[in-house]
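Researcher: Structure for this, please.
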Amino acid sequence: MMTTPVRQGRWSDAITALNTRWHKLALYGFLVIVVAHWAEHIAQAIQIYALGWPVPQARGVLGIPFPWLVSSEWMHYGYAVVMLFGLVVLRHGFHGRSGRWWRIAMWIQVWHHFEHLLLLLQALTGSNILGKPAPTSIIQLVIPRVELHLVYNAIVFVPMLVGMLLHQRPRAAERERMSCACALAAAR
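Model: Predicted structure, token format:
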């Protein structure tokens, strides 16, 4: 097992730990957050398409008791930041094929984050793109918001998951570069 060079400083020590001895735990914790978010969007889609609820009433699971969550651009932006932070920080533990897939997810999330930043800025300034009645992202000009978030979550989640699966099943050269205990036992 190769060791990762340790840089000086609290943040760099924490990042090193998250990509070495705590990498597996950090990945599973991050996966729980991502899947919980996915569940909210899937619940909202079920409420709209299976139960026939109007879009404003389809608020997912947490949005039912806490309706402000759905309309809060701060909350949506906060999740986009958490997602980007996780993808950026945990990328250092990935190598080879898994690293390539993880970076694909990360760069898609960079765009998704930008779209949420755009939505937040519109909500804060009250000035919406093209005079729309509500904050609107660029891709939302083509794809409605509910469907767009299903698409965004899918196109970030799939390469992230592929990266995690490949990370657990590294080729010999990738295994040599790993500094974490994420790899499953080698085939005998």
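Researcher: Any notable elements?
Model: The chain has seven helices and no strands. The first helix runs from residue 10 to 18.
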